[in-house]
Amino acid sequence: MTFKRTLKYTSLTNSLILGGILAIFNCGLTQSVFAQTLTPIRAAYVPAATWLPAWVAKDKGIFENNGLDVTLTPIQNLSLLPGAVSKQFDFAASTPPDLIKAFSSGIDVVATTGGVYEDTGHQSIQLIVKKDSGISSIKDLKGKIVATPSLGAIMHIATLEWFKKNGGDPSTIRGIEVPFPNMGDQLKASRVDAIEAIQPFVGKLLSQPEYIGIGNPLLEVDNPTLFTFWIAQGQWAKSNAPIVKKWTTSLNQAIDFINKNPAEARVIMAKYTNLPPAVVNTIPFPAYSVALKPAQMNTWTTVLRNLDMISQPVDASKLIFNP
Q1: Beta bridge partners of residue 266, listed in sequence order
Q2: Tell me: the pLDDT tens digits for 31-82?
Q3: Contact 98, 153 (CB under 8 A)
Q4: Chain-centre distance of CA 220, in angstroms?
Q5: In this structure, are 165 and 215 located in the same domain?
Q6: Residues 203, 238: one domain?
Q7: Which of 318, 321, 315 is CA-nearest to residue 239?
Q8: Are residues 20 and 44 in the same domain?
Q9: Could you tell me which of 118, 170, 263, 278 has the fewest CB atoms within 10 Å of its CB?
Q10: Closest Cα to residue 252, out of 298, 219, 292, 281?
């Protein structure tokens, strides 16, 4: 009797051990198969609130749920990215002027997914000066030094267009390139007279009494206006339409998450911007949307031609790829 009980116990123990081994093996196999089904994607962004949906999609597993294994890389200069897609990155952050100028120069690049729209109720940009600088309007920038992330960037182009519309000669403004995180220090030291700042830096600076904003250059171009979006190499996008669709779907789901979970979204924003929660909590969310329309590009084509930055018209319908 004892022998039979021992035999049964031994058999049960062995079955449990074998079952555990099989479970571990199957779990590992499942994870391996799942990992193999994920498409690796390289994406570049600027550490500003405009790119929050990508951060949320990454941190909340939305990209993975849609079959994408996304690596996000921070950069400072958007204007360099059109030439980097398909080489260093699959998707990259961009703006209308950067895309239009790249396309005009023969680079095969298209917009795939919308990002942010500026309007009166959702503003990411401000032209900031010292309160005691004597600068109170765009007309006062004549002969002044303006810090910009890039001389060819949308913010500087909008500033020049705004100045020109008010009777100024854009050549009288001296623009110098300064990374967003360093702009405040340059303004404080009076090395520049004005800075083209973006959130979250706008909120941080304007919370200090010595600085004021004199306006949003983008809204002087159009209101509302298309500000940021995602781009990819044209042929790659057309050959990988399902991947582009998964990317857009992921960002749209991330926008929905932000709208429903603003507090948690701000925690993620703090992580990617390296700003304290007290500052992040003061930053207004931009107007996020994955939609793109050719007409929105036409506005910026007109601006670029007005400033002699492109010489020929651009077919806006060729700038956008919707899978």
Answers
A1: none
A2: 444 445 999 999 999 888 899 999 999 999 999 999 999 999 998 777 667 7
A3: yes
A4: 21
A5: yes
A6: no
A7: 321
A8: no
A9: 263
A10: 292
